[in-house]
């Protein structure tokens, strides 16, 4: 799509034209999914995140008439969505780890049981991981090694370690989500 045509669609979008939105969506959505999946390694989640980007675009459509490069703008939005995702994963994981490390601070026996069940779910997810991913996850979370230390010890790239950890956390999250789905 050349800049002139894209600008026409962007102006129409800013006026609330659904057809223009649809054209931009069909053009950019697959590219965004591919871009996001390159970071999070989960195609379904990448599609959801790309969908969220376009939902935000539709909600704030009026401001897009002032944007010179729609493509650059939405890829920046996608990058921010990915960063927020990783921030939440880290925060969630730290919270669970802190809670599991301090069982004496739980308010009730129900909390203790829940924490143990949660740890069991994590253990199940870890046991089902491919050997390399499992090894890297355990080195990181159990042994407390940094990504660089793991990379050096295993003689692999630091980015490979990060990819394995991202995939490991996604595996754990899936197992927990499935179990919570059956509990609710």
Plain-language structure description:
With 184 residues, this protein is an all-alpha fold. The chain folds into 2 domains: 3-86, Rna Polymerase Sigma Factor, Chain: A; 102-183, Arc Repressor Mutant, subunit A (Orthogonal Bundle), CATH 1.10.10. The protein is 80% helix and 0% strand. The protein contains 8 helices and no strands. Helix 5 (109-127) crosses helix 8 (158-183). The longest helix has 32 residues, at 70-101. The chain is elongated. The N and C termini lie far apart (46 Å). The mean pLDDT is 82.
Attribute tags:
8 helices; single chain; mainly alpha; 184 residues; Arc Repressor Mutant, subunit A; 0% strand; Rna Polymerase Sigma Factor, Chain: A
Question: What's the topology here?
Answer:
Blueprint: H1 3-14, H2 18-40, H3 43-59, H4 70-101, H5 109-127, H6 131-141, H7 147-154, H8 158-183
CA-based shape: elongated
Mean of residue pLDDT?
82
Rg result: 21 Å
Q: Give the N-terminus to C-terminus distance in angstroms.
A: 46 Å
What percent strand? under 5%
Biggest β-sheet strands, sense, barrel: none
Number of domains: 2
Class inferred from helices and paired strands: mainly alpha
Number of strands: 0
Can you tell me the CATH architecture of the largest domain? Orthogonal Bundle
Fourth-tier CATH superfamily name of the largest domain: RNA polymerase sigma factor, region 2, helix turn helix motif
What is the overall number of helices?
8
Question: Tell me, what is the CATH class of the largest domain?
Answer: Mainly Alpha
What is the fold-level CATH name, i.e. the topology of the largest domain? Answer: Rna Polymerase Sigma Factor, Chain: A
Elements, N to C (H/E): HHHHHHHH
Uncertain regions: pLDDT < 50 for 5+ in a row? none
Helix percent band: over 70%
